[in-house]
Amino acid sequence: MVKISVIGAGGRVGSSCVRNIAEILGNKRKNKRNENTKNTIAMIDIPQALNLMKGMAIDIKDAVMNDVEIFASDNRKDAADSDIIVITAGKPRGPGMTREQLLSENAAIIKVIAEDIAKFSPDAKVIVVSNPLDVMSYVVYETLHKISNKSSKEIIGMGGVLDSMRYRKFIADVFNCGLKDVSGAIVLGIHGEGMVPMESTVRLKRLKIKEGDKEKLNEAAKKTTSAGKTIADFGASAYFAPGVAVAKMINAIMKDTNEILPCSVLSNGNYGINGELFIGLPVRIGKNGVEKIAELKISDEERTKIKKAAENLKNTLAQIKI
What we know:
- The protein is of the alpha/beta class.
- The protein contains 9 helices and 16 strands.
- The strands form 5 sheets. It has a 6-stranded parallel sheet with strand order 5-4-1-6-7-8, sandwiched between helices. It has a 3-stranded antiparallel sheet with strand order 9-12-13, with helices on one face.
């Protein structure tokens, strides 16, 4: 049996994650005694959201029509024995607000959640969705590592998966082609101001972008960079797409696919990044979480942009105490 807990499940992003996770956890499994077991999703949030989550759990079960077990709780101890924990808790980004402005308040919230994970489910893989994502991923890592010496390979930030989905969509839009024609749409760096959409890796029908089409690609990159702000400026926030992105990551872990996904991870000197921080890099994701940071063939200019993003992250991390 697989158990996945979503902390912050009463919010739109959290409930979207639950909906998408339920799709991939639905099949009954048999244990060693040949007994039918059910995969489980724990929806966890503050007491004020408990009744809302109970109703959501029923609705999600009706939507997916499979055998996954979904329950709601306002106590984080009910995340005990989780295989994977998804953190979506925290304050959302409002109109005109940058992810970095959320820094102090969300860092305090995420630190307490990480302490509870260490207490109740220390062996779980952790996927961080809360913003500012790269900083919150580091807060989770630093907290868990101090308490239980948890490996950085078991803590992964979601941002780059979502940004790359958007980049691929915008490339298809500006080139007036199908999504299936676009490959190598990868966004690295910071999830937010400071993201770096890769140009070197993009292919249209398996061919490199022609020099004369670089302006179109730049247009797609600009739309990608401002996508989150565009949604926020309409008074909304992204939650459907983040749920899909999280489900992709969970699928890679559960099925041990070793596929490359752009995620926020501890850099370990990769791509010339010095210092301890979480930043979006291309990662092979499998049963152990981060199996390996992939070294892609990118331009010197792109490497410089990633390193600059890392320096900006260091300055942001210096503003908080963990």
